[in-house]
Write a structure and sequence with these properties.
The structure is a single chain. The chain is mostly beta strands and 68 residues long. It is built from no helices and 6 strands. The model has no long low-confidence stretch (mean pLDDT 94).
Length: 68
């Protein structure tokens, strides 16, 4: 599966749902992250990209606004 490499323009957290963070990992500004597919709109109205390391049971998303 081919992903799109995107660069963070601000520090970001990894989310599992619209309210819950996946873990305490902080992704730093300037990091290159591989995203898959288009953006998803969650219940809170914000858009997220699915990122590398995500599985059907271990969901990992980053907010779209954190990318350039």
């Amino acid at each position: 599966m081919d992903g799109t490499k995107r660069t963070l323009t601000r520090n970001a957290y990894i989310y599992a749902t619209s309210k819950r963070r996946a873990d305490r990992t902080l992704l730093r500004k300037g990091d290159t992250i591989t995203t898959y597919g288009g953006s998803y709109k969650f219940k809170n109205g914000k858009r997220y990209y699915r990122i590398e390391g995500a599985t059907s049971t271990n969901k990992r998303y980053v907010k779209v606004v954190n990318f350039e």
